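Lab notebook, page 48
Experiment: co-folding of the full assembly
Goal: obtain a model of how the components sit together before planning crosslinking
Operator: M.T.
Materials (sequences as entered):
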Amino acid sequence: MISGRAAIVGVGETEFSKNSGRSELQLAVEAVRAALADAGLAPADVDGLVTFSMDSTAEIALAREIGAGELRFFSQVGYGGGAACATVQQAALAISAGVARVVVCYRALNERSGRRFGRVSRDVSSAPTSSGVDNGWHYPMGLGTPAATVAMVARRYQHVFGATGEDFGRVAVAARRHAATNPRAWFFERPITLADHQASRWIAEPLRLLDCCQESDGAVAVVVAGVEQAADLRQPPAVITAAAQGSGADQYIMTSYYRDNLTGLPELGVVGRQLWEQSGLVPEEVRVAVLYDHFTPYVLMQLEELGFCPPGEARHFIADGAIELGGRLPVNPHGGQLGEAYIHGMNGIVEAVRQVRGSSVNQVAGAGPVLVTAGTGVPTSGLLLGPADPGAVGP
Amino acid sequence: MEDTVNAAVERIRAAGAGPARPARDPVNLPMIRNWLEAIGDRNPRYEQDGLAPPAMTQVWTMRGLHPVADPADPLSAMSAVLDQAGFTSVVATNCEQTYHRYLRDGERVEVRSRLVDVSGPKRTALGEGWFVTTDSTWYVGAEAVASMTFRVLKFRPPDSTAATPASEPAPAATPERAPARAAVSEPAPAATSEQPPAPAAADVLRPVVTRDTAFFWAGTAAGELRIQRCGGCGQLRHPPGPACRQCGADRQDHLVARGTGEIFSFVVHRHPPVPGRRLPIVVVLVELTEGVRMVGELLGADPAQVRIGAAVRVDFVPVDAELTLPAWRLLP
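Observation: model returned without errors.
Model output:
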């Protein structure tokens, strides 16, 4: 079993901006150094590196820059933001299998000043791969942006369950409320109202601008080590209580339109069932949820898929502010990717660690487990993190 | 009208190659440098050896920013005839060049062209038109240094009624495969015919075609919407793939769909730009009568009027000789 064998022992981030002014490799180096310093470890201690297949910084390039020496485990996880939590899972698997001792997971991107994912990519649509062939059923027909691919599912979800644009908007309002009190967030001190959301322009109907997360430059790194080693390190460990990947039946990247229903995220259901099974926990025990929020409708669908409410009921679940600070299930206290930054989900893992340590600027009281999810609409992943001693941590 | 065009074709073709048109300037390094910079070609050899990039050949004999039509030029002459007949718009469709040797700094080039073929009238994505093919040869003195086969489509631009497709009732006897009027999105109903020209069809993103999927694209080019059918168990499937997940057979067949279905979901795409499209566009996920789903653009519809469950019929949008896209129209 993977549960309880490894922990996140250090976290590091660059600033989050719209134009970093540095190479992605440089950003990766800065984030990794910060994470190692946070953990009280040296580059020479690192023997494993994991990143996204989409990351432009190869493990060996990063290892050269930080002076990591010999590596015994290196891996790249596919499917865009779906890789975020899976990087930590890979690290925990390597550590619990004894092939590595200290594994750093990283993601560095100049997504705003460099290659912007929100645009139509000719490279993606013409890739000579099975995924390129898949894209041939959508891109040439004019469906070629992440927002548009999500909008297709969101429209069906509205049609079947009666959800409205205002229901989507409440997710954005909560995220911006949380970001408003997080100095690291791009939208620090800039909350929005539901009326602001409703007045924002259409991007791909039924999605408005404020349903779409921002674009960011920045880097994030987390250090994973075995729980025995973790006990001797500088920070209180965030123990990996559960870690899972999931792909659903008839899975595509953002365009799983050929399944019976278009109202859920079955791949995340695969993740959720594993998280509960590995940990022995139930959704009601989760203290904070960090849900991948590139587009608001998928936050509603995640709440349903993970079992926080029945299918189609998320709009009622969130109607009374349940996902805001002080609510039944605070979601994305850092502001999420809508409010803090879009670092492909990795900044959410850092927030989860801070919530476990009790050091978040928007700390949620208690010692219960923290849930993290990765990119939705794609093969994805998730984590449950908790303190080494649930009775000892928390304000 | 066709007789007039055909008579002109015979006359111009019989005249053979037009007069030689000399380049305005000799092959020269300043222009070579400008071109290399513009294209981003960093090969140092051109400047070192005083050679012109072969792909520049046509540049030397271009007529400048404000060209005057030359009635002795076969393409100009043919274009004038087609303009008279109402085929006033033009788009280049093919250009094949052959380079016999490098041009050198200081050489004086001239070009001669002849009319090869005019075929039409043809119904195309852009409108009814004629394909005009010319051959050109560049000479230095008597030596042929490069040649080119060039084809344009001279077409009749869609008339003003085409600008209000949503209000246009489908004729009672809709042909099984109505010719598409535009390779790219049609103007929204509120638009007027004064909109800027549609983006070039060449910008349309193209599918990656493999042995597993070629049957589908061959079908659209032939005006058929093909659905993969398992050669073992008969299971229908879209998008297609090489192996049947129901029975495991790897023999794949297809049927020709009736071309009808209902909108299962849809998107009104407004931002950011989509290559080859004028926004907004409506993209629909159609559940076909046969049961499979398929994504395509919904043509000629007012976005505000589109509903899940609406009945649609397939249409085919020829982009060029290699690609025809399936698209959809609302049934009345």
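Interpretation: Chain B has a mean pLDDT of 85.
Next step: discuss with group before ordering constructs.
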